[in-house]
């Protein structure tokens, strides 16, 4: 009996009943090379044996609670296909907004650092988008504290043929000075764990997610270190948790009184990003 996409979706919903329907649809559409609209329209598409075999493998993994991006081995970030694997944070939509904000401030010849690079998605997007905008000769650096993240980052950098210096570092310790620093650091508060998607908790690295009791571990260290690692015209761009704006304002007012700060909401209207530069 021929199996259609409609049949497969029904089977997937029954086999992976705890998986989110949108995750099932995402994995199936990516494997079949269908856009979201094509996936909805082509319900009667007949699948061959190879497609069915792959889909059944994927559905079993979804049933075990494995993240769709880890099943596929990649995630999309600002239009770039980024390799991801367990042990590396899956890129988030909000971080795309951080990159787009930073891009507006980039100039040719600048030295840029991506702290806690993970998959390298920020570095890849910055480097490739800068090329499109005619911003040349960027000196790109990507750092992380874990070897697994750095290996994944290096693979993505090679895929996109970028010249990037990859360094193992705990925030800024042991690094030099930069013109721009950008980071999506760990910022989830420990007590927010109970409200999180089990898929995230089960799959993604805790070091890349949690920022301590108040979610501020990274920012406290960053605020004490950043002066020694930014050039006189230097700037930084950081993502943070939407409930942490007041804490950050207080921390930076105390630790970085010689910086001008701009806070920005994400597309959902939640406080999410901060931009800092030396006062003139």
Automatic annotation (TrEMBL):
Protein's GO biological process: methylation
Release factor glutamine methyltransferase N-terminal domain mapped to chain residues: 21-73
Entry's Gene Ontology molecular function annotations: nucleic acid binding; peptide chain release factor N(5)-glutamine methyltransferase activity
InterPro entries: DNA_methylase_N6_adenine_CS (IPR002052), HemK-like (IPR004556), N5-glutamine_MTase (IPR050320), PrmC_N (IPR040758), RF_methyltr_PrmC (IPR019874), SAM-dependent_MTases_sf (IPR029063), Small_mtfrase_dom (IPR007848)
The keyword Methyltransferase is assigned to this record: yes
Keywords tagged on the record: Methyltransferase, S-adenosyl-L-methionine, Transferase
Catalytic reactions of this protein: L-glutaminyl-[peptide chain release factor] + S-adenosyl-L-methionine = N(5)-methyl-L-glutaminyl-[peptide chain release factor] + S-adenosyl-L-homocysteine + H(+)
Enzyme Commission number: 2.1.1.297
Domain Methyltransferase small: 104-202
Protein name: peptide chain release factor N(5)-glutamine methyltransferase
Source organism (scientific name): Lactobacillus acetotolerans
């Amino acid at each position: 009996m021929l199996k259609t996409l409609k049949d497969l979706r029904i089977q997937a919903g029954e086999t992976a009943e705890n998986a989110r329907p949108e995750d099932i649809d995402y994995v199936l559409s990516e494997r079949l090379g269908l856009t979201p609209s094509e996936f909805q329209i082509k319900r009667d598409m007949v699948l061959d044996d190879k497609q069915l075999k792959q889909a059944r493998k994927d559905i079993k993994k979804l049933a075990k609670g494995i993240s769709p991006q880890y099943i596929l081995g990649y995630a999309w970030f600002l239009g770039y296909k980024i390799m991801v694997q367990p042990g590396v944070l899956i890129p988030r939509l909000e971080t795309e907004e951080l990159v787009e904000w930073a891009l507006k401030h980039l100039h040719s010849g600048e030295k840029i650092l991506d702290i806690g690079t993970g998959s390298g998605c920020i570095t890849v997007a910055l480097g490739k988008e800068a090329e499109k905008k005619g911003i040349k000769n960027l000196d790109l650096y990507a750092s992380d504290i874990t070897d697994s993240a750095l290996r994944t980052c290096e693979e993505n950098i090679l895929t996109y043929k970028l010249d990037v210096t990859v360094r193992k570092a705990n925030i800024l310790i042991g690094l030099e000075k930069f013109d721009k620093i950008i980071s999506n650091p760990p910022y989830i508060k420990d007590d927010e764990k109970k409200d999180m998607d089990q898929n995230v908790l089960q799959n993604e690295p805790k070091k890349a997610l949690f920022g301590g009791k108040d979610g501020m571990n990274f920012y406290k260290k960053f605020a004490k270190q950043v002066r020694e690692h930014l050039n006189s015209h230097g700037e930084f761009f950081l993502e943070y948790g939407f409930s942490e704006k007041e804490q950050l304002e207080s921390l930076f007012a105390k630790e970085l009184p010689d910086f001008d700060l701009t806070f920005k909401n994400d597309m959902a209207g939640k406080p999410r990003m901060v931009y800092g530069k030396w006062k003139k």
